[in-house]
């Protein structure tokens, strides 16, 4: 949850989950296409610069194999959350990377 919030996606995913089925996506402030597109651009930028999984607490884990396992688990959670958001806002056409592309970048 901390990682998703830091990447700006936690609140957007919560809004998507809380939205009534008959409510248009664009009427939910957290899912407004302009702000959502900006959040996604920032997220993609963090993927390309390697900042998406940069966590000070993670880097303090002394055991390298444990650190790699934790990083892999976080990457899977981030990819899963992205896929949920991607599928939920697909009709807005603001996501420029598929879930598979995001998974590849997180690996």
Structure write-up:
With 107 residues, this protein is mainly α. It has 6 helices and no strands. Helix 2 crosses helix 5 and helix 5 packs antiparallel against helix 6 (99-106). The protein starts with a helix and ends with a helix.
Content of β-strand: under 5%
What's the rounded overall pLDDT mean? 84
Indicate the radius of gyration in whole angstroms: 15 Å
Number of helices: 6
Largest sheet: none
Number of separate strands: 0
Q: Helix coverage percent of residues? A: 55-70%
Q: Summarize the helix and strand pattern as letters.
A: HHHHHH
Identify low-pLDDT runs: none
The helix-and-strand class reads: mainly alpha
What sort of overall outline do the alpha carbons produce when their principal axes are compared?
elongated
Give descriptors for this structure:
single chain; 107 residues; mainly alpha; 6 helices; 64% helix
Summarize the structure.
With 107 residues, the chain is mostly helical. It is built from six helices and no strands.
Q: Strands, helices and their partners?
A:
Elements: H1 2-6, H2 10-18, H3 33-49, H4 56-59, H5 64-88, H6 99-106
